[in-house]
């Protein structure tokens, strides 16, 4: 999912969207708009007479034993799905079979770098700008041959078969080729986020005894400073995505250092027979970075885990296949992206690599006059995290609001009509009315993502109902909201394409069973009415081995029942709807009991308050020794600065504006309005807030790569601010 971790780059992704026009009267004239309005009124009435909303049973009860609970399985399968097709039991087998099946089809694509230059801003800062050309593709057969050559070259350069190899790079074609090369020699791949801090990087490499590090040239620069702390590292393979300085190579000369191309060439001339894995072998040790001060934990994911999730997802996405084009820009070090790309490889889909910094024509790193990734690739499939989709929605609504007048009235009218059509009947989204609004209003918005996107999968965190509906209406596509963790190899539940409901994560994927277990302390019970509620636990082919070198933590959350069935306890609280779809409603660790006994769900409150136009990011904090909560708010620069300008507020810089009493009052009033809309209780609304001028990014260590809050790190960094709010 390129790297999505840079908040500034994500904002640049929105500039093109935020400045797009709604060409209503200008393009279609008054008569066209009048006809559209008449059809808009008549069509839904006729449709509502012809079609009614239907309820489909998507999951059924399952008897899988263990601790008393409410278990469900996907209703379309009587037994769990394990492989996408016969023989594809490992990542190595899947890729080899796919390369033969789709041999001449496009597989992995990267944009050609034409020119790199640096532009200096008025304050003296330098910004990199890239002139990028068309995508250059490897076919499936070519990508497989490169993986085979890399596998042979890796062994020939001296990699020990009993040690691990780590990939420390942004998402790109070489990441997948390197991983597939390792799999052909049954080598376990350790995945490391490109944005990882020094201490966590050293911990990850040392704990797993990595002997070979595969990195891009940018990450290579970080190695000399920590090389003396690395206990087992012997080899470095660097991707030549930009020139590598001789000084950097000289600083790591005590290690065997080769370029990626050199390793491929070495393997091409010195073939080594494959040493293929079994489905139970560990394919990946994927480090997860929870919202605590603990060091990251390495989740051991088997080949069988990944192919089971792949097989399950392939049954959900409609008409997935060789005609699709997938934009890859999220971190491959995250299970969400790794699972998604494996699904694409199994389906013969073309994978084009990009990044949030180059995604649109106006992204931060795109040179003026150069097209962004989506404009060149024209993808049909994308995945995203909620934070990015939220910002797209906010930017579009903000632009429409600024236009005002008839344009805004027509947009609002069309939005309401389409919303009614979607929620009124499944057929409503195909109505002639929708075709008219699509051409008049929504076409420019869709063009920002290439104009061909037909399906969006969202995961990593809860997606708000408003944002999901925005994507349904303005992009005209189904949004599949997935639920899973690294420990379940991303596979737990997935919204099916024909489910138009919001706020839910769908039925269990056909590779697993999902069960709710009562949590008495939190007041969630499977006997609750109208729906059973409890902690979400998962069992099936997607459940991973456990945590590397951490038996105590493994035994804490992976529990074997009296039947010998091994369940993973997620810590999330869910409820099953009558049709078998799961909804995540809380998290055990995010619930705090206030002084007077009221329970505050921090995640629920943050989701409600994040709808304020002034909020870029927010963390709610509740001290159990007080009867109210407080909040740290990273305000949206543009929104707050515009308010200040309109209000005649004088300030020297954004930091000073964040300390302005009137600005704090304005944001707090906005939070109160958002809380009212979100139906929060009085004690859930922050009584005091502080505005923080600097964004929270993975580089700062305050959010994960999926943009989830790291609560303990935030509390530690802003301890003084929180103390002041309670005094």
From TrEMBL:
Domain AMP-dependent synthetase/ligase: 129-548
Annotated transmembrane regions: 28-51
InterPro entries, per the entry: AMP-bd_C_sf, AMP-dep_synth/lig_dom, ANL_N_sf
Annotated keywords: Membrane, Transmembrane, Transmembrane helix
Single Gene Ontology MF annotation: long-chain fatty acid-CoA ligase activity
Pfam families for this protein: AMP-binding
GO cellular component: endoplasmic reticulum; membrane
Catalytic activity entry: a long-chain fatty acid + ATP + CoA = a long-chain fatty acyl-CoA + AMP + diphosphate
Keyword Membrane annotated: yes
Name of the protein: AMP-dependent synthetase/ligase domain-containing protein
Organism: Miscanthus lutarioriparius
């Amino acid at each position: 999912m390129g790297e999505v971790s840079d908040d500034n780059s994500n904002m640049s992704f929105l500039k093109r969207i935020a400045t797009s026009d709604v060409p209503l009267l200008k393009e279609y004239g008054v008569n066209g708009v009048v006809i559209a309005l008449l059809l808009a009124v008549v069509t839904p009435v006729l449709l509502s007479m012809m079609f009614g909303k239907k309820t489909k049973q998507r999951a059924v009860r399952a008897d899988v034993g263990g601790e008393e609970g409410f278990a469900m399985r996907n209703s379309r399968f009587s037994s769990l799905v394990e492989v996408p097709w016969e023989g594809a039991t490992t990542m190595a087998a899947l890729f080899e079979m796919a390369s033969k099946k789709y041999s001449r089809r496009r597989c992995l694509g990267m944009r050609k770098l034409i020119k790199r230059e640096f532009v200096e801003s008025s304050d003296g800062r330098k910004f990199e700008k890239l002139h990028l050309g068309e995508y250059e593709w490897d076919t499936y057969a070519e990508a497989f041959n490169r993986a085979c050559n890399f596998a042979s070259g890796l062994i020939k350069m001296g990699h020990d078969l009993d040690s691990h190899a780590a990939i420390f790079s942004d998402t790109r074609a070489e990441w997948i080729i390197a991983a597939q090369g390792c799999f052909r020699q049954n080598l376990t791949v350790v995945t490391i986020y490109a944005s990882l801090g020094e201490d966590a990087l050293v911990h990850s490499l040392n704990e797993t005894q990595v002997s070979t590090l595969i990195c891009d040239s940018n990450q290579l620069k970080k190695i000399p400073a920590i090389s003396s702390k690395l206990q087992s590292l012997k080899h470095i393979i660097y991707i030549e995505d930009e020139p590598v300085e001789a000084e950097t190579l000289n600083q790591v000369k005590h290690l065997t250092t080769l370029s990626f191309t050199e390793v491929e060439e070495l393997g091409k001339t010195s073939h080594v027979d494959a040493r293929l894995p079994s489905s139970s072998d560990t394919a990946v040790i994927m480090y997860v970075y929870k919202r605590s001060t603990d060091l990251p934990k390495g989740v051991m994911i088997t080949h069988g885990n990944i192919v089971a999730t792949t097989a399950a997802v392939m049954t959900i996405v409609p008409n997935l296949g060789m005609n699709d084009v997938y934009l890859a820009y999220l971190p491959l070090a995250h299970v969400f992206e790794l699972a998604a790309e494996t699904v694409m490889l199994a389906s013969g889909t073309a994978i084009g690599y990009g990044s949030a910094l180059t995604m649109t024509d106006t992204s931060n790193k795109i040179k003026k006059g150069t097209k962004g990734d989506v404009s060149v690739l024209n993808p049909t499939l994308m995945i995203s995290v909620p934070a990015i989709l939220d910002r797209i929605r906010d930017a579009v609504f903000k632009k429409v609001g600024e236009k005002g007048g008839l344009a805004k009235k027509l947009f609002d009218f069309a939005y309401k009509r389409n919303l009614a059509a979607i929620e009124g009947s499944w057929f409503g989204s195909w109505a002639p009315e929708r075709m008219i609004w699509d051409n008049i209003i929504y076409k420019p918005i869709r063009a920002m993502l290439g104009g061909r996107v037909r399906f969006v999968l969202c995961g990593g965190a809860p997606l708000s109902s408003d944002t999901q509906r925005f994507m349904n209406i303005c992009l005209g596509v189904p949004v599949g909201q997935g639920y899973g963790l690294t420990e379940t190899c991303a596979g737990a539940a997935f919204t099916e394409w024909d489910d138009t409901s919001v706020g839910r994560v769908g039925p269990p994927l056909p590779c697993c069973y999902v069960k709710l277990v009562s949590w008495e302390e939190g007041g969630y019970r499977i006997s609750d009415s109208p729906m059973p509620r409890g902690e979400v636990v998962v069992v099936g082919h997607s459940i991973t081995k456990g945590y590397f070198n951490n038996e105590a933590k493994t035994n804490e959350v992976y529990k074997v029942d009296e039947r010998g069935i091994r369940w993973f306890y997620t810590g999330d609280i869910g409820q099953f709807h009558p049709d078998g779809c799961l909804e995540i409603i809380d998290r055990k660790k995010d619930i705090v009991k206030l002084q007077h006994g009221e329970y505050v769900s921090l995640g629920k409150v943050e989701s409600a308050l994040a709808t304020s136009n002034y909020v870029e990011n927010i963390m709610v904090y509740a001290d159990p020794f007080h009867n109210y909560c407080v909040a740290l708010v990273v305000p949206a620069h543009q929104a707050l600065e515009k308010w200040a300008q309109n209000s005649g507020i004088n300030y020297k810089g954004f930091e000073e504006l964040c300390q302005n009493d009137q600005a704090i009052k304005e944001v707090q009033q906005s939070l109160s309005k958002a809380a009212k809309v979100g139906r929060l209780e009085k004690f859930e609304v922050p009584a005091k807030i502080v505005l923080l001028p600097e964004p929270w990014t993975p580089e700062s260590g305050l959010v994960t790569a999926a943009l989830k809050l790291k609560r303990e790190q935030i509390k530690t960094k802003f301890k003084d601010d929180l103390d002041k709010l309670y005094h």
